[in-house]
Design goal:
Largest sheet: 5 strands, mixed
CATH architecture of the largest domain: 3-Layer(aba) Sandwich
Number of domains: 2
Protein name: Binding protein YtlA
Keywords: Signal
Pfam family, one: NMT1_2
Subcellular location: Periplasm
Signal peptide: 1-22
Helix content: 40-55%
CATH topology of the largest domain: D-Maltodextrin-Binding Protein, domain 2
Shape: globular
Length: 330
């Protein structure tokens, strides 16, 4: 009889323990990524390796296709966190937004595009771009501004020394280059490598190597959201930092295998070589801190492109490094 009572008590305790474990709260955070890109490998790693889950977070990832659409989704509360170029936070701030976007965790620290030519260019020099037909990116976006910045470093005026086309939507640029009469284009990986493999283009230069460190893609949230959810933002940043460290320490093949589900139509070897390209030029930020030198480089690039708004673009207001610093130190 006593044995039965003990068994009943033990069963009750086990059920109570399981119930307590099951009741632990999980917070959902909605992320909007500006595009689907291998350039964002650490984000996919954070999901697939369970780093968000370890922090008690469940992320809902959606691709919002373009900086303007991403920021509209963020400001209208369609998403909680945006993964987008940090220049967008400057544009919003310049519009005197009362609840502006704050950059809190940097993901990539170089431009992610490569110069792709339709024909082979074994002896390529930047001078070859003069008088050519160049399929550019969206006006005011980071790829286009960095592209113009690099060309100017080589004495090329992108609006007068070549024919610059900017009338194609971001998602349609690869197809337009393939079917059009353009000689050059800026492409992200793995698209650039796919074009190479299929004989539709040739990677001849890297804009990331030419432009230096810049806060190219950053996680940002509205000021009010960060203030009201600081603990969850810290957990989010910690998950990203774990992924950044893992990417730094892991070979490209294993990274590619880990995130292959996000690029189902791309051969594993292409994913591997593309990740290796990004790793070789230090595109993946090793930690989430956006430092002031990178911020100033961003402003110089925007200024060169004629896109930097008038007035003080405050690093102190638009960048929060305290959360990332706490994560790294603890």
């Amino acid at each position: 009889m006593k044995k039965m009572k003990w068994l009943a008590l033990l069963s009750a305790l086990i059920l109570l323990f399981l119930s307590a474990c099951g009741s632990s709260s999980t917070t959902t955070i909605k992320i909007g990524e500006v595009t689907r890109s291998l350039f964002y490998a650490p984000q996919y790693v954070a999901i697939e390796k369970g780093f968000f889950e370890e922090e008690g977070l469940e992320v809902e990832l959606q691709t919002t296709w373009g900086g303007d659409k991403t920021m509209t989704a963020l400001l209208s509360d369609g998403i909680d966190v945006a993964l987008v170029g940090s220049e967008t936070s400057i544009y919003v701030y310049a519009q005197d937004s009362k609840d502006f976007a704050v950059n809190f965790a940097q993901l990539t620290q170089t431009d992610g595009t490569f110069l792709v030519a339709k024909e082979e260019k074994p002896d390529f020099t930047w001078e070859d771009l003069k008088d050519s037909s160049f399929l550019g990116q969206r006006k005011g976006g980071m790829p286009q501004m960095v592209g113009e910045y690099v060309l100017k470093q080589y004495g090329i005026d992108p609006h007068n020394d070549l024919t610059l086309h900017q009338n194609i939507e971001f998602a349609n640029i690869p197809g337009a280059f393939l079917s059009g009469d353009y000689e050059y284009v800026q492409l992200f990986e793995p698209t650039a490598s796919v074009f190479e493999k299929e004989g539709n283009g040739h990677v001849i230069a890297s804009f990331g190597e030419e432009s230096g460190h810049v806060p190219y893609t950053v996680f940002m949230a509205k000021q009010s959201y960060i203030e009201e959810n600081e603990e969850n933002i810290e957990k989010f940043t910690r998950a990203i930092y774990k992924a950044q460290q893992w990417v730094q320490e892991t070979d490209s093949r294993e990274i590619a295998e880990t995130i292959q589900k996000y690029f189902e139509d791309v051969d594993l070897d292409i994913l591997t070589s593309s990740i290796e390209r990004y790793k070789n030029q230090d595109s993946f930020a090793p930690d989430p801190i956006l430092d002031e030198e990178e911020w100033n480089n961003l402003k110089n690039i925007m200024d060169e492109a004629g896109e930097l708004p008038d007035g003080d673009i405050s690093y102190e207001e638009l960048v929060n490094t305290e959360i990332a610093e706490d994560v790294i130190n603890n």
